[in-house]
Design brief:
The chain is mainly alpha-helical. The chain has one domain (12-166): Four Helix Bundle (Hemerythrin (Met), subunit A) (Up-down Bundle). It is 61% helix and 7% strand.
């Protein structure tokens, strides 16, 4: 039995984004319990040269929705990048997951050898085969930004563990 592009992409990005949403829940609970303004967490970063938490979430959702849209040959929705609260970031994640669920798996499966054009900054574009785009661009980048968001909250003192990052993986107990 072969492993399809849709099997490698759709559940992976959905699980990652839902886990990111749950991590934000823990961040909100932490801020409330410690009487910290949540904007302190949202503006935190691991290094001055890295994105703050808000931007990490925005980029993770953009990469997920835009990636599966390009693989599916459809236009992704545009998000404004104007979130200022944890609730707004969670709503953004929910919108991205809802969009991802609309993508036809057959369209993604047909993208393996198709050239995918991606923007590289404001004026440049690049191309990759669909399977390379998924395996070497979309998934690593989604995971990177979800990991950075997790690490920022963990660094701020939010009690998070590996299971929070992994989310609801389809594990069957034997």
């Amino acid at each position: 039995m072969s492993f399809s592009m849709s099997q490698a992409s759709l559940p992976a990005v959905e699980i990652a984004l839902n886990a990111l949403s749950a991590v934000l829940d823990k961040g909100a609970a932490f801020a409330a319990a410690k009487k910290i303004d949540p904007s302190v967490l949202l503006n935190s970063r691991l290094d001055p040269a890295m994105f703050a938490l808000t931007r990490q979430v925005q980029v993770a959702t953009d990469l997920a929705k835009n990636g599966v849209a390009r693989l599916g040959g459809v236009e992704p929705p545009r998000f404004e990048d104007n979130e200022t609260t944890i609730e707004q970031l969670k709503a953004r994640i929910a919108r991205a997951v809802a969009f991802i669920k609309t993508i036809d798996p057959k369209q993604i499966d047909a993208a393996s050898d198709r050239a995918i054009t991606i923007p590289l900054g404001p004026t440049n574009k690049g191309q990759m085969k669909g399977d390379d785009y998924l395996n070497h661009f979309v998934l690593p980048n989604v995971y990177f930004h979800c990991t950075a968001a997790y690490a920022i909250l963990r660094h701020c003192g939010v009690e998070l563990g590996k299971s929070d990052y992994l989310g609801a993986i389809p594990l069957k107990m034997v």
